[in-house]
Amino acid sequence: MRSARRPGEKRFVFAEEEPPRVGRVEWLEVAVPEVPDPQYGMYVWPCAVVLAQYVWYSRNTLRGKTILEIGAGAGLPGIVAAKCGANVTLSDSAEIPNCLDNCRLSCQINNLEDVPVIGLTWGQISPDLVLLPQIDIILGSDVFYDTEDFENILTTVFYLIRKNPHALFWTTYQERCADWSIESLLYKWNLKCVHIPLETFKADEEFLAGSNLPGSHSVHMMIITLETNIPSVT
Ligand SMILES: C[S@@+](CC[C@H](N)C(=O)[O-])C[C@H]1O[C@@H](n2cnc3c(N)ncnc32)[C@H](O)[C@@H]1O
């Protein structure tokens, strides 16, 4: 039974792909707070719904995996991962405390009070970054939105992947400018990426997880790894 919607909450329903198993449809409903605030991290962005759909699609591989979400905002992909049995840590800029508070509220609403929410600012080595446990997957939705941050994001990702050479960075980005590219930075940091077509995880839809957020936005999904590591794509 679905609980009543609280004011300022957005709901997303992830359901088993068609055709459902006879007599049983697997589904997951999550709710995230949305607060009228100029900070980008207080809203759910189209990229988050697409990445959350990839997480949901991969749910049978996630139990017991350790996952860190960076630039999480309201944390939709990480919350779906935690609901699917992963050990999740959510993070956002240490310099935006109200965004971290909103992320904590998101965890509370979904009965995930045990999920740690920490301040991790891209490009900065902090005790919280250094003390993170072993990581299997890094999540980042719509983190590549300002070219000024690209190198700092990849510095942080590189730091984590060097410590966890098997780790995969699952990330979605929205095409806002055809000139933007991270190719040269990936090369510089000895990283490589594989593009995952949206139709392979049923995300090539304008209406996804009960939400019209993806709309007609051009969202892409990629998996970034160390150059020497081959990603296992589900
Ligand atoms: C476009 S929003 C995306 C939020 C969320 N991932 C989503 O897709 O709904 C970008 C996110 O990056 C965070 N962010 C911006 N600068 C950052 C930095 N230097 N270090 C860490 N996070 C940062 C913002 O607070 C915000 O949550």
Present the secondary structure layout:
Layout: E1 9-15, E2 27-33, H1 46-57, E3 66-69, H2 76-83, E4 87-92, H3 97-109, E5 117-119, H4 127-130, E6 137-141, H5 147-163, E7 168-174, H6 183-188, E8 191-196, E9 219-226
Parallel strand pairs: 3-4, 3-6, 4-5, 6-7
Antiparallel strand pairs: 1-2, 7-9, 8-9
Helix pairs in contact: 1-2
S-adenosylmethionine binds next to helix 1.
What do these coordinates show?
The protein is α/β, with parallel strands linked by helices and 234 residues long. It has one domain: Rossmann fold (3-Layer(aba) Sandwich). 26% of the residues lie in helices and 23% in strands. The chain has a seven-stranded mixed sheet. A two-stranded antiparallel ribbon has the order 1-2. Strand 4, helix 3 and strand 5 form a beta-alpha-beta unit. Helix 1 runs parallel beside helix 2. The longest helix has 17 residues. The radius of gyration is 17 Å and the shape is globular. The mean pLDDT is 90. S-adenosylmethionine binds next to helix 1. InterPro entries: Methyltransf_16 (IPR019410), SAM-dependent_MTases_sf (IPR029063). This is Methyltransferase-like protein 23.
- The helix/strand series, from N terminus to C terminus, equals EEHEHEHEHEHEHEE
What hetero molecules are in the model? S-adenosylmethionine
- The CATH topology corresponds to Rossmann fold
Q: Which quaternary structure do these chains form?
A: single chain
Q: Major β-sheet, in short?
A: 7 strands, mixed
CATH class: Alpha Beta
CATH architecture: 3-Layer(aba) Sandwich
**How many domains comprise the coordinates?**
1
Morphology:
globular
Indicate the radius of gyration in whole angstroms: 17 Å
Strand percentage: 15-25%
> Tally of extended strands?
9
Give start-end ranges of low-pLDDT stretches: none
* Cα end-to-end separation: 31 Å
Q: Could you tell me the mean pLDDT?
A: 90
Strand-pairing-aware structural class: alpha/beta
Biggest sheet: strand arrangement: 5-4-3-6-7-9-8
Query: What share of residues is helical?
Result: 25-40%
Protein name: Methyltransferase-like protein 23
GO molecular function, one term: methyltransferase activity
Family: Belongs to the methyltransferase superfamily. METTL23 family.
Organism: Chiloscyllium punctatum (Brownbanded bambooshark)
